[in-house]
Structures are given as C-alpha cells and as structure tokens.
Design brief:
This is Coenzyme PQQ synthesis protein B. Keywords: PQQ biosynthesis, Transport. The chain has helices at about 20-30, 60-65, 90-95, 110-120, 125-130, 200-210, 225, 250-255, 280-285; strands at about 1-5, 40-45, 50-55, 80-85, 105-110, 135-140, 145-150, 150-160, 175-185, 190-195, 210-215, 260-265, 290, 295-299. The chain contains nine helices and 14 strands. It has one domain (about 1-299): 4-Layer Sandwich (Metallo-beta-lactamase, Chain A). A seven-stranded mixed sheet has the order 6-5-4-3-2-1-14. A seven-stranded mixed sheet has the order 7-8-9-10-11-12-13, with helices on one face. Strand 7 (about 145-150) and strand 8 form a beta hairpin.
C-alpha cells in the first residue's frame, strides 16, 4: 500500500485563521523552519490502485490535488474510491460537502453513531442527498472490513467523546475509532489513531504489531491551551492524550520497537512544530517523527 499524509495539523490547520500564537505567526513570517499545514487527513492506495481518503477535512480540495496519480484522465472521474471517517468531528467531515460534484454517490465508511451525527446534528449526509447522494458502509468496532480484495481495515475504539454539536443529545458510544490498515499482498500493517484519548496495553500491542503508526500528536502538555489563556479545557478534556505530561503518550510510544512512529493531528499551538524547539528535539530523540503534509510511505 501507499500512504500519504494530506494534512498533519489538527482542526484549524497551521496557521489557524484567528490565531496569533508563536507558531502561526512564524508560518506567516516564513521563519523558524515551520510551514503551512492542512487539516487532518490521510489517503491510502490499495495494491489494486484505488485511493481511499481517511477523513475529509475542510482543506480537501487542495489535499486531493496531492494525489497526482489519482487525477482524472477523462472529463469526469472520481480520484477516490471511498472516504473513511474515524469520527464525526467538523475537521474530519466538512470536506464531504466539497465532494458534492461527484457523478456517483459518495462511498462513505463510518460507524452508525457517526452516521447519526451527520444526519441529525451536522446534516451533511442529508444535504448530499440533493447532490451526488451517498452510499454508506457501516463500520463496527471489532470488525474487519475489506476495502478491496487486497486491502482490509480493522476498526477499534479510541474515545467516547461526542462532537460538541452532539453533546446535548447525550448519546454514549464509541464516537472515535482508529483503523488498522492491512495490505494482503505485502502483509504490511499501518495503524491510524488521530484521536487518542488514552493508551491501554491492548492498544500498545496493536501499535507494536504495526509496521507504521500515525498517532495523535495534538497537544504537548495537558494544559497547553490553558497556559496560553485560550481555553479552559485540558487536552484530556478534549479527548486527546497529551504527548509529554505525566503518563502522556511520548514515553509509551518511545518504548515501541517495531513500528515507524509518526505524529499527526498536531494542533497549531504545539511547540513540536518549531524545527529548533526543545520539544521537537525531545520527540525526535524518542525516535518519533513529526508528520508533515505530502509525507508518503510505501509499505
Ligand atoms: C478534536 O479533534 O478534538 C476536534 O476536531 C475539535 C474541534 O475542532 O471541534
Ligand atoms: Mn480534530
Ligand atoms: Zn496558532
């Protein structure tokens, strides 16, 4: 399989439109070895050649242009065979509406709870019915779903945090899932977990059994946003395990021996974006990469 990071930033991107943090200003001023990053999304190409998008960010139009090999050769063709959703958050779903020009119903994979959210709370699916339509495939936690004859995804639970727009409905469930993507031709396995609320031995074993992992790098410490005075919510309140805080993810990820480890969904405020920061140094010395747009992995 071929995997490409289309957006390594979290919701808001880098820079975020209303943000004047050190990182956002550095990008605008073109300094400190920091560059523009799109919002969270990856694409994976099956051995048969079909591309699948995992999460549809608001930056989708530019992101799909990164899939050069997938561009239409005829007057109308769809560069992607399907869109897989790991949750119903705005940053992972808004791009669906940009795909409304599709000549065929959009093939979307997601859990039942995500389908409900995108029907009732943020009614993208209902809206798309008046355009291209949607062909929905359900993902169930614990199940393995074939995307093609040679590419499977295994679905596992990551967090119980509902998107803000669904909170008033108080629906409990596995709101955030992760995916283990398996290529039957090479036997290679990638695990994608952009919304990691906590680590368990079981999850760490899944990571260790993967050849590459793309993991939530949203926040450096639990109180990143509190310290900046821009939120009263901690990283953990938001369903993101911080990297460096006590019992954060960094220590555990650094212990993994087998997989290539790459951080994704990195918030614009995270100091690891800065090439010369102490925090970036700590991450790299732990054998972990900071994801960037366009990074391509052949497995
Ligand atoms: C998240 O990753 O926690 C969400 O995307 C936050 C948001 O932008 O609403
Ligand atoms: Mn997000
Ligand atoms: Zn910022």
């Amino acid at each position: 399989m071929l995997l490409k990071i289309l957006g390594a930033a979290a919701g808001g991107g880098l820079p975020q439109w209303n943000c004047g943090c050190i990182n956002c200003q550095a990008v605008r001023q073109n300094r400190a070895g920091i560059s523009w990053l799109n919002q969270s999304s990856i694409a994976v190409q099956a051995p048969e050649g079909d591309w699948f998008l995992v999460n549809a960010s608001p930056d989708i139009r530019q992101q799909l242009e990164l899939l050069r090999d997938a561009q239409p050769l005829s007057i109308r063709a769809n560069p992607i065979a399907g869109v897989i959703l790991t949750d119903a958050e705005i940053d992972h779903t808004t791009g669906l509406i940009i795909l409304r020009e599709s000549a065929q119903p959009l093939h979307i994979y997601g859990t039942e709870i995500v389908k409900k959210a995108l029907t009732d709370g943020f009614p993208l699916l209902k809206t798309l019915e008046s355009y291209c339509g949607v062909a929905w495939s359900n993902l169930n936690v614990g199940a393995t779903v074939p995307l093609t004859a040679n590419l499977d995804i295994e679905v596992f639970a990551l967090a119980a945090k509902a998107p803000k727009y669904m909170r008033s409905q108080n629906i409990a469930g596995d709101w955030v899932i992760g995916l283990t993507i398996c290529d039957r031709t090479t036997g290679k396995v990638v695990t994608y977990a952009p919304g990691l609320a906590k680590l368990s031995d079981r999850l760490l074993a899944r990571f260790e059994a993967s050849d590459c992992i793309l993991v939530d790098g949203t926040f450096w410490q639990n109180d990143d946003l509190l310290k900046l005075g821009i939120s009263t919510r901690t990283a953990r309140d938001m369903g993101h395990l911080p990297l460096a805080s006590e019992d954060g993810s960094l220590h555990h990820l650094s212990q993994l021996k087998h997989p290539r480890k790459i951080l994704v969904h990195i918030n614009n405020t995270n100091p690891i974006h800065l090439a010369n920061s102490q925090e970036r140094k700590i991450v790299e010395e732990a054998g972990i990469e900071v994801g960037c747009d366009g990074l391509t992995i052949q497995l």
